[in-house]
Please model this.
Amino acid sequence: MTTVAELCTKTLTEVAALIKNKEISPVELTGAILDRIAVHESKLYSYLTITAELALRQAKEAEQEVAKGRYRGPLHGMPIAVKDLCFTKGIRTTCASKILADWIPDHNATVVDKLNAAGAVLLGKLGMTEFALAGYHPSIHPPVNPWNPERWPGASSSGSGVATAASLCFASLGSDTGGSIRFPSAACGIVGVKPTYGKVSRYGVFPLGESLDHIGPMTRCVEDSAIMLRAIAGFDPKDPTTRRVTVRDYLDMLRNGVRGVRIGVDADYCRKGVDPQVSAAVLATTKVFQDLGAEIRDVKFPLSDDPFWFTICAAETAAAHEKFYPARANDYGPTFRSFLEEGVQVKGTEYAQAHVKRQGVCRMLDDILQKVDLLLCPSMPMPPMLVKDFRPDAPLSREASLGLLRHTAPFDLTGSPTISVPCGFSTEGLPLSLQLIGRHDEEGLVMQAGYAYEQATDWHTRRPTL
Model:
């Protein structure tokens, strides 16, 4: 018989069914997860704030509601956590910075309100890079990859990746401006979904780049991501970038398979600047998709070596930090401070030219997605790199960003929905990940294809040994 402690490593979907059928108590489950956090967190550093009292109170409320037949759905009573740039009323929201180290918001982010409405249990706020860029403030211990402590845990949503992979929460929220849902999902061997820009409200989420930021779920399987996205997606009058589009019940689409779905592959894009183990694993997925009935088509996605994402993001970041920089320049860590220095130097003409180039990428992808339904490529160009080769205080240069972000930033520029799904392991036992990109508002198809691949393989069932 499975114990409550053993349930912690199961998927949200599996355990939600037990809560619905009153076979497990949300209070017992939350207690077990908190116990697991107490044992492992001192080595993983995935949380910045643990809200144990709140979690147990919410779990008790969920237990009482379920007992009375007021079951709200698969997130009801499920312990989750959110990245520490999501505002939480009465709970500090630090963005892993000295600037906001003691800041306590007086309202929730819309995504937090939506998770509350779904009955989720909030375990706490997850670690991240300083203000969601690439480096960590010197006062913050970076999250540790549960597969190998010497390896990179991914970019800014690193705490979300680590906690989800290590079963210290059943699901989490991350944010993605240049790859920060996809990198930690790839590095930690989990599923990450970056929705269409504007599909999920960013009200009450501290910005990095306003025109690039996306909020999305990070989970241990595709079905769990579908549940999370369904809960948080939708129009929000408080966020002018959200749109009045119908939010599908993504769970209804997952099992539709990929027969007849056209998947585009640019072999050069999958190989150029990509570790051979990654490119081999990603290209090998085409055989799985073909066996499932998908049609694989050759396409070309010839990106230029112009780091204009850097120009847009740096300028928008400087705008977001105008209140603090340069007045409190010394309170920033070296990585983020150097990015702000770059941002304030961007000329208006440079920013405008970068947006013209951005439209070119949007049209290029749109042309491809007229011929195919999905684009397939790596989530990350290498297995998780050695931490010593990606120092937490190193500046993010234009050149470095170009190579690292080659398979992620284009789809923040276009605002396209993506999914990252485990697709193998390196010879050193490190996770590898495929990425699927779809047309705007076709998250359902993106997850449908990710689910079909996931169910045909067993990569997603593996857990790191803690």
In short: The mean pLDDT is 97. The domain at 4-461 is CATH 3.90.1300.10 (Amidase signature (AS) enzymes). The first strand starts at residue 47 and ends at 50. The chain has one domain: 4-461.
